[in-house]
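Issue 218. Parser rejects a valid record. Input:
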Amino acid sequence: MTSASTEPRWLDPAEMRAWRAYILGTELLRQQLHRELQDAHSMTIADYEVLVQLSERSDWRMRMTQLAGRIASSKSRLSHQIARMEKAGLVRRVDCADDARGVMAELTDKGMEQLRAAAPTHVNGVREHLVDLITQDEQELLAAIFERVHKHLDQLN
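Output the parser choked on:
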């Protein structure tokens, strides 16, 4: 971290190109995947991500705090999202058995049906708009880069 009195390490042209390509590319990709889910399934990409996280658990449940971390959401934003998804019958909140103050989000059968219907649309979009555009070596490099970024940011929190 730089202090207020030190000159920032400005990005050189190559660094700026990489940064801007990342920002614009990820935002446009996310918007496209969201649009495809909305058009085909009336589902947001944020809701899809919640359903995926819950479906990957053997009991289809996850503590709300853990879920917020897994989808890079604030606890408050996730709470509002889960409330909306509850009204749609996709998830429900349940008390945490080992912690009276804890709350779990649980995937419902209807939520799993919605996920199963939407998953092919999502994976086709991920393939068409990212995976099939890059080589296997580039996929491995991309994964290594963002695993490193994720680890670094996790260590800050």
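Fixed in the parser; the record now loads. The longest helix spans residues 13-41.
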